[in-house]
Request: fold
Amino acid sequence: MALVHHDPRDGILITKIGQAEITVRPEPPASTGAAPVVLLRVDAPMLDSLAAAYLDPDEARSLARALLQAADQLRPASPWRTPERPTG
Reply:
């Protein structure tokens, strides 16, 4: 996965996987009284598809936790920490 752009100051991440491009960035409120959101956009020209999700901050955090948990189950980020296993 090639990192195209990442600036922690503006919160924008753009990365490419093959021809697909994934963008994550904060978006200001669309109108007065509306809340700001996090844009998750996947543009896959080879499949001629574009998908976008506007996540509220809680949804974005939940998605980030789920992605980290899945990644840690496959390859722990640190040899000193074992990934948490879901219970149930």
In short: The chain has a mean pLDDT of 84. The first helix runs from residue 57 to 74. The first strand starts at residue 2 and ends at 7. DSSP finds one helix and five strands in the chain.
